[in-house]
Amino acid sequence: MKLLLTSSGIKNATIHDALVGLLGKPIAESTALFVPTALYPFPGGPEMAWRAITGSSPSPLCGLGWKSLGILELTALPSIDEAAWAPAVREADAILVGGGDPLFLASWLWRSGLAELLKTNEAVYVGVSAGSIAATTTFVETYPEPPRGADQPLKSEKFVFRTPQGDLDRILVTARGAGLVDFGVIPHLEHPHHLDASLANAEQWAARIPAPTYAIDDDSAVRVVDGTIDVVSEGAWKLFTS
Predict the structure, then answer these.
(1) What is the spatial distance between Cα 71 and Cα 39, in angstroms, rounded to a whole number?
(2) What is the tally of structural domains in the chain?
(3) Which of 30, 70, 153, 198 is the most exposed place for a label (fewest CB within 10 A)?
(4) Whole domain around residue 91: which residue ranges?
């Protein structure tokens, strides 16, 4: 498998070059399918999905200049004959999985059948935020209240994280991902708008993941080629191994 797991999409030339290298040809000669599913649990989800699809979101995966682009909505797939959508997945050069709620996304990756199909698929998997988190075997995420509308997490616990503005209470869930990689990903490291993703909090989250875990900022990505893992970055990242 080939994967490019990003925090916030193709944010710089280094990550862009890594994507082109995984594709083996220019983006303008490549086909892609975009998965917007993770956005829907949020207020304004349909509008956010539209911005993502039209390439006008802060992480414009769909606006990179693909030869062709299709939309793969995971919540619709269980009601459709697999023969109608699986060939498109097999024929695509890239599967673009957008950000949002990783617990909801991971649930639908399994329920749709896409998780199993991706394990034998030759397309490059490109994840953004939740799209990267949900590709892992086990992940953690924080919620202001117990999450709904997805499979039950493996574990839920109260968690207090420190921010410059003071302590905040959250529900920290540990959950099962799609199992495409055997390491963890924590995105948005030290991002000012993701107050819970500080290095200190990332270390506590990583301790709950039974695998090496990469904490990456928005200028970094984890690249995987047939089991070989490296980080491409113009920013900051840290690997937790304990």
Answers:
(1) 14
(2) 1
(3) 70
(4) 2-240
Instruction: Give the residue from 241, 178, 231, 188 showing the smallest Cα distance to 211.
Output: 241
* CA–CA separation, 133 and 50 (whole Å): 22
Q: How many of the other CB atoms lie within 10 Å of CB of 200? A: 8
Phi, psi of 46 (to 5 degrees): -60, -40
CATH of residue 152: 3.40.50.880
The pair of structure tokens assigned to 13 is: 């030339």
| pTM of the predicted model as reported, rounded to 2 decimal places | 0.93
CB 202 within 8 A of CB 240: yes
- The pLDDT profile of the chain, 242 residues, written as one tens digit per residue, is 899 999 999 999 999 999 999 999 999 999 999 999 999 998 898 999 999 998 887 777 999 999 999 999 999 999 999 999 999 999 999 999 999 999 999 999 999 999 999 999 999 999 999 999 999 999 999 888 877 656 767 788 888 777 667 777 888 899 999 999 999 999 999 887 776 778 888 898 999 999 999 999 999 999 999 999 999 999 999 999 96
What are residue 215's phi and psi, to 5 degrees? Answer: -100, 125
Q: Answer yes or no: are the C-beta atoms of 79 and 113 closer than 8 Å.
A: no
* Residue 177, token pair as written in the block: 């991902």
Q: What does 4-70 look like in DSSP terms, one character per residue?
A: EEESSSS-SHHHHHHHHHHHTS-GGG-EEEEE-GGGTTSTTHHHHHHHHHTT-SSS-GGGS--SEEE
